[in-house]
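Q: Predict the bound structure with zinc ion.
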Amino acid sequence: MHFNITTEKIKEINADLELIIVAEKNLKHAFIKDAKLLKKAGFKGAQDELCLLVEKERLYVGVESLAPESIRPAVAVALRSLIGNKSYTSLKVATYLKDASTASLQAMVEGIVLGSYCFNRYKSDKQHAAIKQVELSLESYNEHQLDVQSAIKAVHEAKILAHATNFTRDIVNTTPDDCYPAVMADIASRLAKENKMDISILKPKEMKKEKMQALLAVARASRHKPRLIHLLHKPKHPKAVITLVGKGLTYDSGGLSLKPADYMVTMKSDKSGGSAVLGIMKAVSELNLDVEVHGFVGAVENMIGGDAYKPDDVLTAKNGKTIEVRNTDAEGRLVLADVLCYAQQEVKADYLFDVATLTGACVVGVGNYTSGVMGNSNLPKEMVLEAAKSSGEFATKLDFNRYLKKTLESQIADICNISNTRYGGAITAGEFLSAFIDEAHKEKWAHIDIAGPAFVEHAWGENPHGASGAGVRMMVKLLEKLAKA
Ligand code: BES
Ligand code: ZN
Ligand code: ZN
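A: Predicted complex:
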C-alpha cells in the first residue's frame, strides 16, 4: 500500500473511492455533500457506522469526534469492509484536523493499515485488501493546516507502527505447529538481519548453564525445545536503556493441570507478549529511536507427557529462589521468572517492562479489551498508562497490596506458583513476578497483562478477529517519548 501526501484539493484528486469521515453532529450541515442520500439510506453517523454510496464512489463512516481515538477505529472499520472487494484499488481521503497536531493524521494512517490486515495463511480462497494507493489531501476544512514535511513524517511513523502491529498479529495467529520456539527464534533472527540488530539465542544447553530450572521444567514435556531470544537495538547516543521481556508460550495446554477443552482453544495466543516484543523491536529499529532497547522472549511450549513437570515439584529459579509448583497451568510466571532474572543479569536498565498473557483473572477483572498494569512503583505504571492512551490501546492499573502478596506463601519452598485464594489472580501473578525483580530494578519495573486484548474472537475497532498485536503500539509510544526526552 502506497501513501501519497498532496496539497491538491480533494475533488481534484483521481481515485476509485473517496473515504469521508463525518461526526454525527455535523450530518445536518450543508457542507456534507450527500446529506439527503445519507438520510435516505438511514445513515446516522454513529461511531464506526458505514454507508457506501456506490454510484457516488464515496464511502462514509461515522465518528463520535475528530479525536484520534475515534478516527482510528472508524477508518479501520471502513477499510475492513473493503477486504475482498476488488473494485476499488485507490482511495482518497482528506485530513481531518482537530487541532494543528499530526495525531489525527497518524491515527488515520494507522486505521488504514490496521484495518486492511487480513490473516490468510490457512485459507484456500485468499481475501486481500485491494487498495494499493492512498491519496491524502492536506486541504483543510478549518483554520488548521499541516505543512507537508510534518505530514510526511507523521505518515512514515504511523506506517511503521501499524506494520509492526500487523507483523505481531501474523506471528500470534500462526498455529502452534507452524510457530514453535525454534520458529520464533528464526523470525527474530530474520528481523535482526533485516533491521541490523544484534541478536543472541539461548538453547537448552546454555539455559542449563544459566540455571534456568523453572523455564526448563515448563518446556520439558514438549518435543519443541525452548529458546531464549535477546534482540538489541543500540543507537550511538541513547537517551535511556530499556529492557522488554515477553511471554512466548507457543502453546499452553496447561500441562498436567490440563486445561478444559473449551479453555485450550486459542492458547496459540499465549505467545502474544513475546510476539509483541518482536513487533516493538521491529518498530524501534525502523524508527531508529534514540533509546537502547533490549528485547527478551522466553519461547516455550507447555505440554503433557511422561516427562512433564508436576504439581508438587519444587523448582529452583535462576536467582536461587525455590518455587512450589501447585498448578502447571501457571507456567507463564515460571518462564518469566527465569527470563526476568537473566535479563537483569545481562542489562542494567533504566526501565524494565514485561508483557504477557498471564492470567484469565485479568480478563475477568477488566474485560477483553483492556490490559492490566502492575508494579511496585507508580512511575513506570503511569508511563505505560499515558502511552496506552495516545496509542489507542486500553490499559488500567491494578494495585498490589501486602495481603494478596501473603497468599503466595509456601510451606515447603520460598514461594508458591499459585495463590491460596481464588480472587485477585491477576495481581497475585504480578506479585509472583515481583519476587524475581532485583532490589535495583524494583522501582523501574512494570508488568503488563495483555491476556484480554491480545486475542479476541471478534473484530473490535481497529482490531480484527484473532490477534490484535496488543502491547506494540503502547510500548512504541512509550519508547518514542523516552527517545525525545
Ligand atoms: N495463558 C494463561 C492465561 C490466559 C487465560 C491467557 C486466558 C489468555 C486467555 C495462563 O498460563 C494460565 O493458564 N493462567 C491460569 C493461572 C491459574 C492456574 C492460577 C489462569 O488464568 O487460569
Ligand atoms: Zn497456563
Ligand atoms: Zn499461559
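A: Residues 252, 270, 327, 329-332, 357-361, 363, 418, 425, 451 surround BES (ligand 1) (CB under 6 Å).
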